[in-house]
Amino acid sequence: MNSKHLPLDDSLYHYLLSTSLREPEVLQKLRNETAQLPMSRMQIAPEQGQFMALLVQLMGAQRTLEVGVFTGYSALVVALALPETGQVVACDVDERYTTIAQSYWQQAGVTHKIDLRLAPALETLDALIAQGESESFDFAFIDADKRNYHNYYERSLQLLRPGGLIAIDNVLWSGRVADPAEDDPRTVAIRALNQSIHRDDRVDLSVLPIADGLTLARKR
Ligand code: CA
Question: Which domains are assigned to the chain?
Answer without folding.
Answer: 10-219 (3.40.50.150)
